[in-house]
Amino acid sequence: MLKSKVITASQLGQVIQRLAQDLNRDLVDKDPVFVGVLKGSVYFFTALTQLLSRSVVVDFIQVSSYGASTSSSGTVTLVKDLTVDIAGKDVYVVEDIVDTGLTLVDVLALIAARHPRSLKVVALLSKPSRRQKEVPLDFVGLEIPDVFVVGFGLDFAEQFRNLPEIWEFSPQGEGGHEARLEDHRHK
Predict the structure, then answer these.
(1) Cα separation, 162 vs 168, whole angstroms
(2) How far from 154 is each of 18, 36, 126, 138, 148, CA to CA, in Å?
């Protein structure tokens, strides 16, 4: 059940604009490859890379650790690997949210094994109170409390990714996902 709006579409736009400005300063003299972690980062990744002041190579990696749960299983499965050569490049891993850090640790290890010149992490959201593995976060949009959130790419069992804002979500409740989504679409 969608409980309350945590971050509005307008706030998301402001955060992404700030991150893009920070990244534009960081990209000077770099050979950048932006790697989006699918599926959750796709909305953030697209909005962010469109605001960059220079051309960048983009690629995607997909891992799975949640399934139909609100907590990470701790077991990461590689679903889609990179298709571009990142050796000697400046890689920016773009994540929707860093929660326990378990998934990101594995993603960073996979990418580091390909010998990039540098490796940085860009996260829209961070939940430091849930961190089980420390991971380097070079660019962070917002820190949020320990609540499960959906929208703007974040999902519960593949639902709610298409909300234009971020909502707190509780899997308890009555009625189908679609009915609840429709109830909250324009609030």
Answers:
(1) 14
(2) 20, 13, 13, 21, 10
Count the Cβ atoms, other than its own, within 10 Å of residue 181: 17
Give me the residue label for tokens 């960059």: 52
pLDDT tens track for 111-155: 999 999 999 999 999 999 999 999 999 999 999 999 999 999 999
Question: What does DSSP say about strands 118-126 and 90-98: parallel, antiparallel, or unpaired?
Answer: parallel
Residue of 29, 59, 90, 99 marked active site:
99
pTM of structure: 0.87
> Could you tell me the domains of the chain?
10-146 (3.40.50.2020)
99 catalytic residue (yes or no): yes
